[in-house]
Design a protein that fits this description.
By secondary structure, the chain is α+β, with helices and mostly antiparallel strands. It folds into 2 domains: 85 residues; 171 residues, Aminopeptidase, CATH 3.40.630. It has a 7-stranded mixed β-sheet with strand order 1-2-3-4-5-7-6. The longest helix is centred in the N-terminal third of the chain and has 46 residues.
């Protein structure tokens, strides 16, 4: 899916949300008014009905009120789950409350076209709260891009849903810390597990599937592979958006700095590290 298709579908989804929120507000207003009218009716029943009939009527009325009010939370959750899913209905819909179990697989050469579509879509949407439009556009390619060496080294993973790639990320036994291989002039030398730190690189998730556990599943797969490769340390150059994920895996901040880019722009990043426990 291109960025233009994503924006178009997002706008359509937001229009559907507006059309649905208005009727939902009216329905809730009517229900609240009905509940208030019911309380007034209960007072009138208590005042004017014979004493013997009051208890039976009020018990039945109270039972109806409990059912009526008790349906609010479940109905509310159902409505707003649907609204959230509609907001990100971009040829795929992510469940908002159901935990997902993901199984990353190694990326292949024929995944590259899908990755080249996913990366700019992910960057322009999920990095937008942290970077300006100019910074994101300047970083696409030099910083955010497909590195074919990771795929050839069998160190890059993808996650699929219904046959479509919804997330990617990997680790590296080579010296580069970020960026694609297209503009790289020098050979990307391999690292020594005894002396050098492995890299964790190039994590991107489809905006419709953000915060659904995809990044965590790929990170776990990377760390298992890094331990199997006998690296003692791992180093990451994290974006501001990615820092919380790596912090959750006990990576610590070593330094904050800025990557120089074209046009006098720079990209603030965070260098993080972790020592691995080898079995």
């Amino acid at each position: 899916m291109t960025r233009e298709q994503f924006i178009s579908q997002k706008k359509d989804s937001e229009r559907r949300i507006v059309r649905r929120v208005v009727p939902v507000g009216i329905i809730y207003s009517v229900r609240v008014a009905s509940a208030f009218a019911g309380m007034v009716l209960a007072v009138l029943l208590w005042r004017f009905f014979p004493t013997g009939a009051r208890t039976t009527i009020l018990i039945e009325f109270g039972f109806c009120v409990l059912l009526f009010v008790g349906s609010f939370p479940a109905e509310r959750d159902s409505i707003f789950n649907d609204l959230h899913c509609s907001r990100w209905n971009c040829a795929m819909t992510a469940p908002t409350r159901i935990p997902m179990s993901w199984t990353p697989r190694l990326a292949r050469e024929d995944d590259i076209p899908a990755l080249e579509e996913l990366i700019p879509l992910s960057v322009r949407t999920l990095q937008a709260p942290y970077y300006s439009q100019g910074q994101m556009e300047a970083a696409l390619g030099p910083v955010f891009a497909v590195d074919r060496n990771l795929i050839r080294d069998a160190t890059y993973f993808v996650v699929e849903h219904d046959g479509q790639i919804v997330g990617c990320g990997g680790w590296s036994k080579r010296r580069s810390l970020y960026g694609g291989d297209q503009g790289r002039v020098e050979q990307d030398a391999e690292l020594d597990p005894e002396r050098d730190a492995a890299r964790v690189r190039a994590f991107f998730v489809h905006p419709a599937w953000a915060r659904c556990g995809i990044g965590r599943s790929i990170m776990a797969a990377c760390e298992r592979a890094i331990v199997e490769a006998r690296f003692h340390r791992v180093e990451i150059v994290a974006t501001l958006a990615g820092e919380p994920l790596y912090a959750a895996f006990a990576y610590t901040v070593v330094e904050r700095y800025e990557i120089a880019m074209a046009g006098g722009l720079s990209l603030p990043v965070v260098r993080m590290t972790k020592r691995m426990e080898l079995v």
